[in-house]
Batch of 2 targets.
Target 1
Amino acid sequence: MLDQQIEIDYGVNIGYVGGFSIWKKDDAHQNIFRDNKAEIELIGNREQQIELYFEVEYIDKICKKLKDHQIEFVHDMFEQPWGQRVFRVYDPDKYIIELGEPMNVVIKRYYETGMTFEEVAERSSTPISIVRSVINNK
């Protein structure tokens, strides 16, 4: 769904290119933590909620794709005070996955509206040197 490249799929555990992997919750508890019941309880505790964060260049496309597949959203897309657009969804175990635009996309988006380097830097809370670098390396 998030255009991650699967390197190996064990069914209950999937490894992605780049070293990221996920487990089905029940299998992870049985296989990874089988000898440590206290840790299983901690991981299953909703007060100890975790969130995975991904940056996606084509955030509108991914948001639509997830909606089309009726993925449960925590909230719809909104713009952070520094201009980055984000949204959050639940995975099947009710953990939160946040998806956000990379800041270079935010910088380019603002620049393409006619903002100066200085205006982009101020609006995005990004140092002017980084704004110049992003824009000049289009």
Target 2
Amino acid sequence: MHWIDPDSLPAVTGVLERFVLNPHGEVDGFVMRASDEDVLVHTPPHMETELTRHIKAGDTVGVHAVRPRGAALLAAVAVTGANGRRIIDHGPDEAREHPNHKAYKRDADGTVRLSLFGPKGELRGALLTDGTVVRIGPKEATEVAELLAPKATLAVRGDGIDTRFGRVVHAREAGPSLKEITPLKHGKPEPKHGPGPKHGSKHKHGPKHGPKHDHAHA
């Protein structure tokens, strides 16, 4: 169960337009229209079943949420549907597994409608104007942040999944056009090129390590 009492948070009301997906093809939020603005709402994937059962595009929904600093996002603690049913974040089911969607290699390009963020406000991708959801890890997203901003032109290549709620592409490459895409680092550390000067010097000049090591393997 979420540690925040949803009744302690103000409610934001809007009309649900579409669900958004994570890289596994799970619903992890939605876009709603509130006060003539697009509002991105994050919901944890374990809420998917209840959310998609009780709310749909065109419904008026109420969201009790926290707003991370520096991100145009509401991280939902509870969502109330048009029928008055309240869907609360009770935490994940320990036995829950990711859905077994078939992924395939896919390109996508277009204009960014909204930047997508994780629950703590970290940049995690973009929603294109054609409805394609592009997901990028938070470390990689910092490399191409300018391409994930609203109205930017974005092209990606990666693992695509089609679901009844739309398409998501987990980007492995990105750029301003398909002719200019380059691989993303995906937050991996730089490759090691052997020990540095200090490390090598320590092994070379250590007073006791060398002799003991040689005799032990004689």
